[in-house]
Design a protein that fits this description.
This protein has 156 residues and is mainly alpha-helical. Helix content is 74%, strand content 0%. The chain binds fe (ii) ion (FE2).
């Protein structure tokens, strides 16, 4: 592994990168899930849901890049193959033709999973003294919890 000026030891950097890869994988799977729903949603709430799913996949697409590039900054390579990320992710793919309510429920679950994965990654980063990754993951966790609330509000 190349030498970094960072005080974080190489073995710790690997643990942080592994936690980040979990975040990258779940963010990537959820990006595609949101775009899938953006394309296929139907019903009276088509307009706002079509728009909200777009807002989610655009946010997540940018986020997976930031998370993956943080891995690179720590000296790790990123397996960007879709199969690898799907296998790693606790968020799962699902059918395209489901009701708008089921789409919302699935997306709430995905956002809550991402919130907790990012919170966990921020803890791992904090325990190794990596404030920058800690901050990135906390910010991502907050965004996912906000999306979860926005989605949940449609069906509560
Ligand atoms: Fe579109």
């Amino acid at each position: 592994m190349e030498k970094l000026k960072s005080a974080i030891a190489p073995s710790n950097r690997e643990a942080i990168a592994n936690a980040l890869y979990q975040c990258v994988s779940e963010t990537a799977v959820t990006t595609m899930l949101a775009q899938n729903y953006h394309w296929n949603v139907t019903g009276m709430a088509f307009g706002p849901l079509h728009k909200l799913f777009q807002e989610i996949y655009e946010d997540h697409f940018a986020a997976q890049d930031e998370l993956a590039e943080r891995m690179r900054a720590l000296g790790s390579f990123v397996d960007g193959n879709l199969t690898s990320m799907v296998n790693q992710s606790k968020v799962t793919e699902c059918e395209s033709q489901i009701s708008a309510v089921d789409m919302i429920k699935n997306m709430v679950n995905a956002q809550e999973t991402l919130g907790s994965t990012n919170a966990g990654a921020s803890d791992i980063a904090a325990s190794h003294g990596d404030k920058l990754t800690e901050d990135l993951c906390i910010e991502r966790g907050q965004i996912h919890e906000k999306f979860a609330w926005m989605l949940r509000s449609h069906i509560e």
